Amino acid sequence: MNIKEIEALIKFVQKSGVNEVEITDKDFKITIKTATQQVVTVASAPVMAMPAAVAAPAAPAAPVAAAPAPAAESKLITVKSPMIGTFYRSSSPDKPSFVNVGDEIKQGQVICIIEAMKLFNEIESEVSGRIVKVLVDNATPVEYDQPLFLVEPK
Length: 154
Hints:
- This protein is α+β, with helices and mostly antiparallel strands.
- It folds into two domains: about 5-65, no CATH class; about 75-154, CATH 2.40.50.100.
- The chain contains three helices and eleven strands.
- The chain has helices at about 5-15, 60-65, 70; strands at about 20-25, 30-35, 40-45, 75-80, 85-90, 105, 110-115, 120-125, 130-135, 140, 145-154.
- The strands form three sheets. It has a four-stranded antiparallel sheet, with no helix packed on it.
- A hairpin with a 4-residue loop joins strand 2 and strand 3.
- The longest helix has 14 residues, at about 5-15.
- The relative contact order is 0.15.
């Protein structure tokens, strides 16, 4: 695999929204991680040096986009996932969502379900307030400590 192919692969991974891709061949192994904006190449044959500019185009965009958001949302509380699993907004597809944007919530109220290892765990709010934003789509995987909701405290 040459540098042009690796650069094309990096661009494809960035556009696809995948967090990590690993390709193993008889001569090399390449892992591309987009969540941390790093490219790691480990090879059992000759090691290919990656120019730093390959992963750089995506890095400047993040700080520029993220800079205004914290100032506007500084008083908001982020409700984070306590576990890895699949996020669900309701107890079943035909039931209404536990909470929606604009809903008032109380401490201890069930706000979502996270399925982990075929167990459905009800996630309760640790704060009282109003739901400002739902940060995760229904039926999508979530990681530990991933932001789920933004809440304006009472």
